[in-house]
UniProtKB/TrEMBL annotation:
The lineage of its organism: Bacteria, Pseudomonadati, Pseudomonadota, Gammaproteobacteria, Alteromonadales. The chain crosses the membrane at residues 59-80, 86-104, 111-129, 141-158, 165-182, 188-206, 213-231, 251-272, 293-324, 330-347, 359-379. Keywords: Membrane, Transmembrane, Transmembrane helix. Residues 51-374 form the DUF4401 domain. This is DUF4401 domain-containing protein.
Length: 392
């Protein structure tokens, strides 16, 4: 494949006259030059991407190659007497090598990237093992801090998206574990909500860190949902580790609900501020204020419902964030979480099925009434605009 004579892709690139795609690109670029839209008379080179099955084979091959090399390295370490120190040293060497490649390496082939990714994950695991064995007799808080620093360095320095996400989703529990160790677990839910709002609200203000903040935002979202899941009755039935059950504090839960409500009100205000400044159908200030009032009232009612149903208001806050910042994956995650939390609460109720069905019917009627009220308000707004247009 490296021979340009036998490579049909390179033949096409080296002979643009034989490629219809190159001809169309040249004609389009020439028309842009004639119109004065662009200054450069030479069209940019076409970046050809490999088919998905080629990329999949490269990913699989990279991980297999990395695992074979790592198996050989671990087998060599197993013969050393001071195994803990050897694992820490080897993990540090592998991690630093991967960091160096990510920062200065120029080969972007998927096979190489996946192989380095596998080495990076393995090096981090070796370092975690070595740090734990070295500091296990000193302080658990120090171990959690070292873990958090290790993942923070990888999250900040590595440009690889998957590696950033794994580092971020592991860094957040390490920071939360520090609060649990020092008996500050009541701050976990409020801090997660504050962090969620801060990260997503700063997403577009730091374009050079957009990918890092986005991965951190998803990591915080998943950890926040998992925390609410641990607080639910299903979480208690599953006999989760005791460290997770330390989240269960009424004060922390009420404070989290209040902070979610304040965050949702801020987002609603931001959305309606944008609507009021754009030339769209909602130009009537009175009607817009009415719709805004209904949205605020709905947020308050949902927050009250989230007191017995942990996680409902948080899922709706994530739904608002996904809509406001145009994050489809966050929207899908929030919808899945909302359905899951409602289902968990429904099946955890210690009442018969008839009473459950009555509660479901009542909830459906309330939601339909809210939807009908909003639709009538918007309809009146559009009708008033049409009347003013006809008068003019």
């Amino acid at each position: 494949m490296n021979d340009p004579i036998n490579n049909p892709i390179k033949k096409t690139i080296n002979n643009p006259d034989k490629s219809p795609m190159h001809k169309a690109q040249a004609q389009l670029w020439q028309s842009l030059v004639n119109q004065g839209v662009v200054d450069n008379s030479t069209a940019p080179a076409i970046q050809l991407s490999s088919p998905w099955y080629i990329i999949g084979a490269q990913i699989l091959g990279g991980w297999i190659a990395a695992l074979f090399v790592l198996a050989f390295v671990i087998a060599c370490i197993a013969s050393v007497n001071d195994m803990e120190q050897s694992i820490l040293a080897m993990g540090s060497i592998i991690t630093l090598s991967c960091l160096t490649y990510y920062r200065v390496g120029e080969n972007n082939q998927e096979f190489i990237l996946q192989m380095v990714f596998a080495f990076s994950i393995s090096g981090q695991l070796m370092m975690l093992w070595g740090i734990h064995d070295t500091l296990k007799h000193i302080d658990d808080g120090l171990i959690a801090l070292m873990y958090a620093v290790l993942f923070a360095v990888h999250w900040w320095l590595i440009p690889h998206k998957a590696n950033q996400f794994i580092a971020a989703i592991a860094m957040v529990p390490c920071l939360l574990a520090i609060l649990v160790i020092y008996q500050l677990s009541q701050l976990i839910l409020p801090l997660l909500i504050v962090s969620l709002m801060l990260v997503w609200s700063q997403l577009y203000r730091w374009p050079q860190s957009y990918q890092r903040l986005r991965m951190l935002g998803y990591a915080i979202s998943l950890n926040l949902l998992f925390t609410h899941f641990a607080l639910s009755d299903i979480g208690r039935w599953m006999d989760l580790p005791q460290i997770l059950m330390t989240f269960d504090a009424r004060f922390s839960h009420y404070l989290a609900v209040a902070m979610v409500l304040l965050s949702a009100l801020w987002l609603i205000n931001q959305v309606f501020n944008q609507l009021s400044t754009q030339p769209i159908e909602l130009t009537n200030t009175a009607q817009l204020s009415r719709v805004k009032f209904i949205a605020i009232l709905s947020a308050i009612l949902i927050s009250l419902l989230s007191i017995p149903m942990a996680g409902i208001s948080t899922a709706l806050l994530m739904l608002l964030l996904g809509y406001f910042y145009n994050e489809f994956k966050l929207l899908a995650l929030a919808i899945g979480a909302l359905v899951s939390f409602i289902g968990l609460y429904y099946y955890s109720l210690h009442i018969n099925l008839f009473d459950k069905s009555l509660w479901l019917m009542a909830s459906g009627v309330v939601l339909l009434l809210i939807r009908l009220t909003m639709a009538l308000s918007i309809g009146k707004t559009i009708a008033n605009k049409e009347q003013r247009h006809d008068v003019q």
